[in-house]
Amino acid sequence: MGITGHSTGPLTDDGLVQLLTPAGERTSHPDYDARVAHLDADALRGLYRDMVLVRRFDTEATALQRQGELALFAQGLGQEAAQIGSGRALAAQDHVFPSYREHGVAHTRGVDLTDVLRLFRGVDHGGWDPVGHGFHLYTLVIGSHTLHATGYAMGVQRDGAVGTGDPDRDTAVVVYFGDGATSQGDVSEALVFAAVNNSPVVFFCQNNQWAISEPTTKQARVPLADRGPGFGVPSVRVDGNDVLATYAVTAEALERARSGGGPTFIEAYTYRMGAHTTSDDPSRYRSSAEEESWRLRDPIDRLRTHLEERGELPTAFVEELAAEADALGERIRTTVRGMGHPSPASMFEHVYATPHSVVEGERVWFEQYEASFADGARAGEGSHR
């Protein structure tokens, strides 16, 4: 028996689903045109608005970190189409498990973006209600939440909320992760459980080509989506800078999950225009020429050009959106600066769902230790070193 190999590497454009070219031209796709046929000019402007506002959030948050108002920030610059397109395909009852860069998805789920910054300021573990928004708290441990999502999806099955034919009941779960997470064992384990249980979960991999400083080419010999079929999971590669195509492929995967068709692996091929986090310097490991080549594929420019050429981006809309973005920026700055600082002892809160004697003992010790600094100063004993 002969052994067949793959002639394309992990960064190939071959096989990408695309409905909107980088030049803003609408292209036809026999499998996905119908998925976006209902998106009229108002809907397209809505997608454009979402991306513009999320990018403004990203810009403001980065500036606040540079000013010392945030401890850290993970930029989503350049990945707006992947997140807004997939997020807008979700139904109200669906549930999302994000990593730590899904600000656009959070926006589509009605999360106040200033609440996202409570985590990055260190005020709390996440300032929103996961149940109320169908959007779990950010997960910082790479890849671990793919298991959480798969387990949640198995629970949805057991609750009888899959394949009933009721569009207001049938539920899908989506988990977002990056290309680097696919090298973690947790992701492989999640794919195994999802496949054998036919769980209603969509694995949404945002392949932004850099796992911090490690390129995708050092993690895979073939496109990342090729991993899905090895587990028995249908897979699709999509142009992650194309908001229409991302919407279409996600809508299809969600429909499959809700109807009882099982999991799907989506690879959204995109690019992280900013740094991994604000503690990273991407100029040390990638070229300015590479960054410039991807600026020409900017997801917001792509949709704006498309709308302008169709005469569906009126000046009044653009001006109103600019004012809305400015107002958002001002609210973000004011809200973050007014958050204050949490007490050090708050780190012991919400560790477990119920009181825990060990944690409580550690909290008491810590508070006594903190108090000893003030006691020592009052007694003239000098500072602790």
Query: What is the C-alpha radius of gyration, as a whole number of Å?
Result: 23 Å
Order of strands, widest sheet: 1-2-3-7-6
DSSP E strands, number: 7
Structural class: alpha/beta
Strand content: 5-15%
Please give the CATH class of the largest domain: Alpha Beta
Q: In this structure, how is the largest beta sheet organized?
A: 5 strands, parallel
CATH superfamily of the largest domain: Thiamin diphosphate (ThDP)-binding fold, Pyr/PP domains
**Helix amount, in percent?**
40-55%
Low-confidence stretches: 1-5
Kindly report the average pLDDT value. 94
Q: Tell me what the CATH architecture of the largest domain is.
A: 3-Layer(aba) Sandwich
Q: Gap between N and C termini, in Å?
A: 70 Å
Order of helices and strands: HHHEHHHHEHEEEHEHEHHHH
Shape category: globular
CATH topology of the largest domain: the name is: Rossmann fold
Count of separate DSSP helical elements: 14
Q: How many structurally independent domains?
A: 2
Give a short summary of the structure.
With 385 residues, this protein is of the alpha/beta class. Helix content is 44%, strand content 8%.
Can you describe this structure?
This protein has 385 residues and is an alpha/beta fold. It has two domains: 33-337, Rossmann fold, CATH 3.40.50; 344-378. Helix content is 44%, strand content 8%. It is built from 14 helices and seven strands. It has helices at 33-36, 41-66, 80-87, 103-108, 113-121, 130-133, 144-158, 185-196, 227-231, 243-258, 288-295, 299-309, 315-337, 357-378, and strands at 95-97, 173-178, 201-207, 210-211, 214-215, 235-239, 264-269. The strands form two sheets. Strands 1-2-3-7-6 form a five-stranded parallel β-sheet, sandwiched between helices. It has a two-stranded antiparallel sheet with strand order 4-5. Helix 8 links the parallel strand 2 (173-178) and strand 3 (201-207). Helix 7 packs parallel to helix 8. It starts with 32 loop residues before the first helix and ends in a 7-residue tail after the last helix. The relative contact order is 0.16. Mean pLDDT is 94; it is low at 1-5.
